[in-house]
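Standup notes
- DV: blocked on the single-chain target, sequence here:
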Amino acid sequence: MLSRTSGQTCLYTRHNNDCTRQYLELNEITLDDIILDGEVAATDERGLVDDHGALFSA
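- DV (later): unblocked, structure below
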């Protein structure tokens, strides 16, 4: 889950671990007071979605 309130961006895993520092580009989000829930997709060198296991080996 990603949340952004009062200019602070926070990203948490499904186990509620804070992983905000691993995705610093999320600080570029300009919307405020939002909560997003979704999944991160890993892509290969061609930009195609890679297997789900690649996320866990990163």
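- Follow-up: The CA atoms of residues 30 and 46 lie 29 Å apart.
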